[in-house]
Write a structure and sequence with these properties.
With 145 residues, the protein is an all-alpha fold. It is built from 5 helices and no strands. It has helices spanning 2-28, 35-61, 71-84, 91-116, 121-142. Helix 1 packs parallel to helix 5 and helix 4 packs antiparallel against helix 5 (121-142). The chain is elongated.
C-alpha cells in the first residue's frame, strides 16, 4: 500500500509540472507575434497535454484523481507572466520566460525523481519523458534570445 501512495505522489508531481507548463503556454500564446515561436509553443503544449493525459490515466489506475495546483499559485504564475510582458512582448522575452519555467520544471522533476524514482517504473518513465521534453524545449527557446 505504501508503494501505491508513493507512486501517486510521484504522479501528482508530474501532473502539476505539466499543468504549470500548459498554463504558462496558454498565457503566453496570445502575446506572441512570431509564427515560429507560436509553433514552438503549440508543439510543447501538445506534448505536455499528452503527458498530462497519460499521468491522469495512471492515477486513475490507482483510484486517484490528480491534485491540481492551488488556485492562488496558478494566479500568481499568470500575474507574473503578465507583469513580465507588460512592457516587452518580444519573442526574446517570451522565450526567456519559457526558459525560466522549463528550468523550474527540470529542477522539480529531478527532485521528484530522486525522491520517488525507485518506486514505480511507469511513473519514472513518464517523468523521464517529461524531463526530455523540457530539456529539448530549453534548447529550442534559447534560439530566440
Amino acid at each position: 500500500m505504501k508503494q501505491n501512495a508513493t507512486s501517486t505522489r510521484f504522479l501528482n508531481d508530474i501532473y502539476r509540472n505539466t499543468e504549470s507548463g500548459i498554463d504558462a503556454i496558454l498565457t503566453l500564446l496570445p502575446k506572441t507575434q512570431d509564427d515560429r515561436l507560436t509553433n514552438d509553443l503549440q508543439t510543447q503544449l501538445h506534448s505536455l497535454r499528452a503527458i498530462e493525459a497519460e499521468t491522469v490515466r495512471k492515477l486513475k489506475q490507482f483510484g486517484e484523481t490528480p491534485r491540481e495546483t492551488p488556485m492562488m499559485q496558478k494566479m500568481g504564475m499568470k500575474m507574473g507572466i503578465h507583469m513580465n510582458t507588460m512592457m516587452n512582448k518580444s519573442s526574446s522575452r517570451l522565450a526567456e520566460l519559457m526558459i525560466k519555467g522549463n528550468n523550474m520544471g527540470v529542477i522539480d522533476l529531478n527532485r521528484a525523481m530522486n525522491e520517488y524514482g525507485a518506486t514505480n517504473s511507469n511513473a519514472t518513465s513518464l517523468a523521464q519523458e517529461l524531463l526530455a521534453l523540457e530539456q529539448k524545449a530549453l534548447d529550442r527557446f534559447k534560439s530566440y534570445l
